[in-house]
Specification:
The chain is α+β, with helices and mostly antiparallel strands. The protein contains nine helices and 32 strands. It folds into three domains: 306 residues, Alpha-Beta Barrel (TIM Barrel), CATH 3.20.20.80; 107 residues, Jelly Rolls (Sandwich); 122 residues, Galactose-binding domain-like (Jelly Rolls, Sandwich), CATH 2.60.120.260. The longest helix has 18 residues. The chain is globular. One of its GO terms (molecular function) is beta-galactosidase activity.
């Protein structure tokens, strides 16, 4: 057993002074086969600790059903870090932000329209307690007080940026203590007064999150906490990207300068991020400051390790600075991992979504009004809404009131337009005499992960209207079909005769195969495709979109098989040339 404690203005581990130099990497953004590689590269860079969030929505995807295997095996990740001689800082709060879907909160919380989030409302606390009752006993043997590597745990996350409910923070702290979490507990917030006033607790270590001006930030912290160690729990050395935005890059000269100043002040630091990884599947989050902005699939973050785990110029520059303040380990220095260009993948088969509904596993649900995803018991993916609209109506405007987030609109199977949460909310079409079947495919592009708009239900949230905008009527009598795309094995494909085949502007699944002699990392490029989701051997790689800035999807080698591999692309708008390319370099901007 070990004791990690505060001693005056610093930390001690088993009675010896220690400064934490930590790097963030999230087990849920890295395929497990690569956990050890990434952790070894962290240690070789001179870091003595690794920090990770714990994503509630990954571990309790449906209420009362818990998952701790595969990419969700947080216990294995922590043990592995300890075996490699690294300390662990764990941030198991109900809310994590992290540019992760819904900030780590499970979507099923939103099925109750009365649920209040991130406060001491009893129904929310009841759900948190049930989660902690499952999670905390798993963590207890991994604490330093039990012989494990976890030396510190966070209470909530940047709570002062959201609220000021001290009863809520006390509940979380007391629940951790009652669950046997007898290690150092801390909070982390920005350096504004209101953030520190709302997010800190008496008797609990307060830490800061910032990317620059460390002297100013720590001076503010000293006003609230004059006698405890200085810690930057999130040193933002890069940034994340939104669809339609630029790829963010922060040069290492600036990062090195700020780090040198942090360490010269005697502070401890946690790099956010050391290695970003990937928002596989539908787990990307979104922001909404002035308008809704979904985060891209890559979480490269312009960090010290690239999305595929390779050391960058920033890695070597930071290692040199750390060497001025701490002894560097005598570890082999990491080299880039091998990459392979597997070449063109011709998509030889196609399955129309409209002909595949019954093969995707979710039955249609009738309702008076279109239902949200959460009311349908759905977490991620798409929803197909269908109803009848009367005719004739010339120049009929079909208005989706508060659609979340992006909808393709069809009349009798014919595409008539797109409605987007951040842009136009309607499409115009002529309805023939006798009426038409109205179909709407809505994509959840990621729940908001930060700020006051956190309660972000998905689908058609208020209703659909038809007619002239000033004289329209709500449409009633719907069928709703959840499309999680969790299992595509039942699809019935038809051959594509030519790679120049004309494909209609309708959603469809395209299937092709390629041969891999070795299982090496590669990058999927979909030039000539518009928007959708890609799967390799049944694994959801995440979203692509011609809007950029991300131009390739990372395909980790462990997802491949030696021999024949399957690539499936769910394309929303069709492609004239159904060919993908697997290349050996990424394109992020």
């Amino acid at each position: 057993m070990a004791a990690f404690e505060i001693d005056g203005g610093g930390f001690v581990l088993d009675g010896k002074p220690i400064r934490l130099i930590s790097g963030a990497m999230h087990y849920f953004r890295i395929v497990p086969d690569y956990w050890e590689d990434r952790l070894r590269k962290l240690r070789a860079c001179g870091f003595n600790a690794v920090e990770t969030y714990v994503a509630w929505n990954l571990h309790e995807p449906r209420e009362g059903e818990f998952v701790f295997e595969g990419m969700a095996d947080v216990e294995r990740f922590i043990r592995l870090a300890g075996e490699l001689g690294l300390l662990v800082i764990l941030r198991p709060s109900p809310y994590i932000c992290a540019e992760w879907e819904f900030g780590g909160l499970p979507s099923w919380l939103l099925a109750d329209p009365a649920m209040r989030l991130r406060c001491s409302d009893p129904p929310f606390l009841e759900k948190v307690k049930a989660y902690y009752d499952e999670l905390l006993p798993r963590l207890k043997p991994l604490l330093c007080t039990s012989g494990g590597p976890i030396v510190a745990m966070q209470i909530e996350n940047e709570y002062g940026s959201y609220g000021n409910d001290k009863n809520y923070l006390n509940f979380l702290r007391d629940a951790m203590i009652a669950g046997g979490m007898d290690v150092l507990l801390f909070t982390s917030d920005g350096s504004e007064d209101y953030m520190l006033q709302g997010g800190t607790l008496p008797g609990t270590l307060a830490t800061l999150n910032f990317g620059s001006k460390p002297e100013q930030a720590f001076a503010k912290l000293r006003e609230y906490q004059p006698d405890k160690p200085l810690v930057c729990m999130e040193y933002w050395n890069g940034w994340f990207d939104h669809w339609g935005d630029e790829h963010h890059v922060r040069g290492f000269e600036d990062v090195v300068d700020v780090l040198d100043r942090i360490l010269a002040m005697g502070a401890s630091v946690n790099f956010y991020m050391f290695h970003g990884g990937t928002n596989f599947g539908f787990y990307n989050g979104a922001n909404h400051i002035d308008f809704y902005e979904p985060t891209v699939t890559s979480y490269d973050y312009n960090a010290l390790l690239s999305e595929s785990g390779d050391p960058t110029d920033k890695y070597w520059a930071i290692r040199e600075v750390i060497g001025r303040y701490a002894e560097l380990p005598d570890d082999p220095l990491p080299a880039p991992s091998p990459k392979r260009a597997y070449g063109e993948v011709r998509m030889t088969e196609r399955a129309s979504l409209f002909e595949s509904f019954d093969r995707l596993g979710s039955p249609a649900v009738p309702s008076v009004c279109p239902e949200t995803m959460e009311r349908l018991g759905q977490d991620y993916g798409f929803v197909w809404y269908e109803t009848e609209v009367s005719g004739p109506q010339i120049g009929c405007e079909i208005i989706l009131q508060e659609v979340r987030d992006r909808a393709s609109i069809y009349l009798d199977g014919r595409f008539v337009g797109v409605a987007e949460r951040w842009g136009g909310d309607s499409a115009v079409a002529d309805i023939p005499a006798g009426g038409a079947k109205l179909g709407i495919l809505v994509e959840n592009m990621g729940r908001i992960n930060y700020g006051s708009r956190l309660r972000d239900v998905k689908g058609i949230t208020e209703g659909v209207k038809a007619g002239a905008r000033q004289y329209n009527q709500f449409l009633f009598g719907w069928t709703n079909r959840p499309l999680t795309l969790a299992d595509l094995s039942g699809l019935a494909y038809s051959p594509i005769d030519s790679d120049e085949a004309e494909c209609p502007n309708e959603p469809a699944f395209y299937r092709g195969t390629f041969v891999a002699e070795t299982r090496e990392d590669t990058f999927l490029k979909l030039d000539g495709w518009t928007k959708g989701v890609a799967f390799v051997n049944g694994f959801n790689l995440g979203r692509y979109w011609e809007r950029g800035p991300q131009r390739t999807l990372y395909v980790p080698g462990p997802l491949l098989r030696e021999g024949v591999n399957e690539l499936v692309v769910f394309e929303l708008h069709g492609t004239a040339r159904p060919v993908a390319v697997l290349q050996d370099v990424p394109e992020l901007g």
